Amino acid sequence: MTLLHPVNHFLPASVAPAINPYQLGATLYMPATRQDIWQIISQQKLAEIDSIVICLEDAVSESEIPAALANLKQLLATWTQQGQTHGFGDESRQISPRVSRPMVFIRPRNALMLTELASWQEIGLVDGFVLPKIDMQSLADWRLACQALPSTQLLMPTLETRLIFNPIHNQELALAFSEGFSQSILALRIGGNDLFASLRLRRPSDVTIYQTPVGILIYQLIACFVPQGFYLTAPVFEYLDKPALFAEELRQDVALGLVGKTIIHPEQIAAVKHAFYVNDIERSQATAILAADAKAVFKQDNSMLEPATHRAWATSVMLRANV
Questions:
Q1: Among 4, 7, 66, CA closest to 32
Q2: What are the b/e assignments for 264-287, b being 16+ CB within 10 Å?
Q3: H or E, element range at 194
């Protein structure tokens, strides 16, 4: 398993990853039964969206599964036809910065469904898969299913079961993720609502997630998984009538180094993009830190900059700037 990130125009080649996790940006989940998914992929609708997840899990009821799978198969057939006719194929995800379409992921219901999807001829068109409710108990099934996927596709396991509250379990899971897949893990998704459910709670509407027990857990997940090389995404904010609170939570998401935000409505896209924007001071400082001739310690913008300890931060800033 490798951690990939796109060619980056702001970073030296020695530190530029291959696929930039900040490309996830605002990630919109949509049920696989939705009839306008192709219009969104081809940017006829929601041209500003960064990434989408076509959901066959929580967003689809058991009775809807056959229709959802049929709709997804038809979507891939349309995608194939459009690619042959207009040159709109899977090569677009190799462009950096990616401008031709949002990143596209599928969230299967379980590992058995992923095995079925892997057998579809056109499945290589999508960028990868979100693996729901993954933990040490289900990891073996997901690893087996992923063996049938192209090695070029990306994985986003979701941390959202009760076992994720166990720090010892998470240490084992981080090691297992590092060794368990031939595909690259683009990011780990934090499933906020499922984690609240494990505590018999719902996210409150008057504070950010970081003022809740799940917020405490997010700090623990960062401490466990980021030092092992993983990136994490921020969970959904489900209240559309709380823009100030949403903006404050986004500020904290970015400050903690999370690489994207799950959204529930297109109205949230602009706020996510604004929050992840790199200002001139951040860009200037990061550029100075990464410069080949940077001094060991120097002052800039009334800050002490020390490349030996600030290089990782500067690299993340430039990854954001590239997007």
A1: 66
A2: eeeebbebbbebbebeeebbebbb
A3: helix 192-198
CB neighbour list of residue 297: distance below 8 Å, 6 or more residues apart: 304, 305, 306
Task: Say whether 173 sits in a helix, a strand or coil.
Answer: helix
Q: How many CA atoms lie within 13 A of 54 on its CB side?
A: 29
H/E run at residue 72: helix 65-86
The backbone torsions φ and ψ at residue 184, rounded to the nearest 5 degrees and listed phi first, read -85, 145
Overall pTM > 0.85: yes
| 27: β partners | 51, 262
Gyration radius of the chain over CA positions: 20
Tokens (6 digits) for 134: 């993954």
- The residue among 296, 1, 313 whose CA lies nearest residue 177 is 1
258 and 297: one domain? no
* Structural domains in the chain (count): 2
CATH number at residue 271: 3.20.20.60
H and E: helices and strands count for the chain: 11, 11
Residues 267 and 292 in one domain: no
Number of C-beta neighbours around residue 168 at 10 A: 8
Q: Are 169 and 135 in contact (CB under 8 A)?
A: yes
SS3 104: strand
Tens-digit pLDDT profile for residues 244-303? 999 999 999 999 999 999 999 999 999 999 999 999 999 999 999 999 999 999 999 999
* Domain housing 78: 21-277
Q: Is residue 81 part of a domain?
A: yes
The DSSP letter of residue 18 is S
